[in-house]
Every structure is written in C-alpha cells, then in structure tokens.
Amino acid sequence: MENKLSGFGLDPTGVERRTFLEEGESSPKQSLYSLSLSASLYLACFHLLSLKLGFILLLLSIYKMDLDLSAPHSTGTTIIGVTYNGGVVLGADSRTSTGMYVANRASDKITELTDNVYVCRSGSAADTQVISDYVRYFLHQHTIQLGQPATVKVAANLVRLLSYQNKNMLQAGVIVGGWDKYEGGQIYSVPLGGTILRQPFSIGGSGSSYLYGFFDQAWKEDMTHEEAEQLVVKAASLAMARDGASGGVVRTVTINAEGVTRKFYGGDTLPLWHDELEPTNSLLDLLSSSVPEPMST
C-alpha cells in the first residue's frame, strides 16, 4: 500500500521524526484545525444572520410605528360651528389620517342627520360614523311618530346619550348644528365622554388648539351669513396651516329657515399664512421657480 508523507515533528528528545500515514488518514492536529475552522465559519454565518434579522426587525418596528395601516382611521381634524342671526354655519377640513399616513385627503366630515340637523365629526372615523348612523335611524323613527321634523336639541341629546353610555369604547368628539322653528339656529358641542354644551360657537379636533384666541377676538353676536361664512373658512385655513393632522379642502354647510347650502373651498383658493408655500401641480414647478437667474456681466 502506498504511504504518504504527511508531516514532520520533533520528539521529546529533540530528534527529528517523520510521520507516515495511510492514504485517507489525517493527523489529530489537522482534524482539530479543520474542526475549529468549520466552527468559526458557522459562528460567523450565525452572527451575520443575527445582524440581518435584527436590522429587518428594526425596520419593521419603525414601519409599524410610523405607518401602522391597521391603526384606526382618525379624523384628527378641525371642525367649527358658528351661529349667526339667521342660522348656523358648520365647517371642517378634509384630512383623514392613519397614524402618519393620510388615508383620505378629501373626506366629508359634515354628516347629515336630518334635513335640518348636521353633525361635524372628529376623533375615530369609525366611531363617529356609527354614532351618526344610529342617530339618523332614531331620528327617522322619531319623525314618523311625531309627524314633524325633530328639533336640534333632540338630535344633540341622542348623540350625547350614545357617546356617554359608550364613553369607555368610543373616541368621538362632535359638533351638532341645525335650525328648527322653535329656537332657530343652534350649536351643541359633544366632546369626548358625552358632555353636552350649547354654545354660540364651537370648535373641535386637533386643530382647535390653534383657534381659541382667534375666536375670542373675531367672533361677535348677530353676524350676517357672509361674515359667519368668512369666519369659518378663515379659521379652518389658519388651523390647516399649523396642524399637521388637518389639511386638504374646506367644506361648509349653512342651515337656516330656507334650507341647507353646501359650499366647497379648494386648497388653492384658501388664504396662505406664515411661511406656507403656494400649491403647485408638480414639484418640478417649485424647483424651476427657485433657480436663480444667471449673473449679468
């Protein structure tokens, strides 16, 4: 059988020795070296996979934190109700958000309850929609039984009843506004928890924190319809300029003895405040307008 020279070494006496191994055999040192090399490779691969997995989990956690698409749709918003000498004007922006993601940029947050009563919704979109649906159904039955339209006070108290009885499960703050032949134009605020307050004007939503001082200065009794309409649009545009959860367009609803009038104000027709940029159709327009002209010699 052919022998193969596999290595040299020194014995304890210092005399050189040669080791001859059979074909296919390996020395203990070679086996130990191969085993340690394989373990090192496996360990390196394990560390690499651990780093990749940790990085993926980090990205997923950041994505879930910022863009949690399973989160409840929220109308973090600006809603306004104002009385004037002939009725009420309701107004709202149109941005519906899911965390940091804008789920709907042109939603309608002013919902009809009856022909003469409307509600502005803020909070969880699903909660406010189901409250509106229930109240609309109850008011329809109420109108059939009485043979006449329900009053604004009845509609507001039904909203208050549902909000208060389910306050631990609902996230809803609404403004009920309307006109009836008994008390004219009325505004009722029903914030979180189910309290009900009749007020000459009311604001709600995340953008309302920027408007309290403005309304203290700008609101006045016995306004005309035009003054009330301009006040609502101006207030909504101010809140949209400051509040990241408010934006889009402005919708208004006027309710008086003559009926209901809806109006729409596009984002390009609203006044600009502070350092707001003018709306453009393309980012290229914005970039081209900011390019400086060449210097003249």
TrEMBL record:
Family listed: Belongs to the peptidase T1B family.
Recorded superkingdom: Eukaryota
GO annotation terms (biological process): proteolysis involved in protein catabolic process
Cellular compartment(s): Cytoplasm; Nucleus
Chief site of localization: cytoplasm
Organism listed in the record: Rhynchospora pubera
Alphabetical list of CDD domains matching this protein: proteasome_beta_type_6
Pfam name, any one: Proteasome
Functional description taken from the UniProt entry: The proteasome is a multicatalytic proteinase complex which is characterized by its ability to cleave peptides with Arg, Phe, Tyr, Leu, and Glu adjacent to the leaving group at neutral or slightly basic pH. The proteasome has an ATP-dependent proteolytic activity. Component of the proteasome, a multicatalytic proteinase complex which is characterized by its ability to cleave peptides with Arg, Phe, Tyr, Leu, and Glu adjacent to the leaving group at neutral or slightly basic pH. The proteasome has an ATP-dependent proteolytic activity.
Protein name: Proteasome subunit beta
Catalytic activity as recorded in UniProt: Cleavage of peptide bonds with very broad specificity
PANTHER family: ATP-DEPENDENT PROTEASE SUBUNIT HSLV, METALLOPROTEASE TLDD
Gene3D superfamilies reported in the protein's UniProt record: Glutamine Phosphoribosylpyrophosphate, subunit 1, domain 1
One term under GO cellular component: nucleus
Description of how the protein assembles with itself and partners: The 26S proteasome consists of a 20S proteasome core and two 19S regulatory subunits. The 20S proteasome core is composed of 28 subunits that are arranged in four stacked rings, resulting in a barrel-shaped structure. The two end rings are each formed by seven alpha subunits, and the two central rings are each formed by seven beta subunits. The catalytic chamber with the active sites is on the inside of the barrel. Component of the proteasome complex.
Keywords: Cytoplasm, Hydrolase, Nucleus, Protease, Proteasome, Threonine protease, Zymogen
Record lineage: Eukaryota, Viridiplantae, Streptophyta, Embryophyta, Tracheophyta
List of catalytic residues: T77
Record-level Gene Ontology MF annotations: threonine-type endopeptidase activity
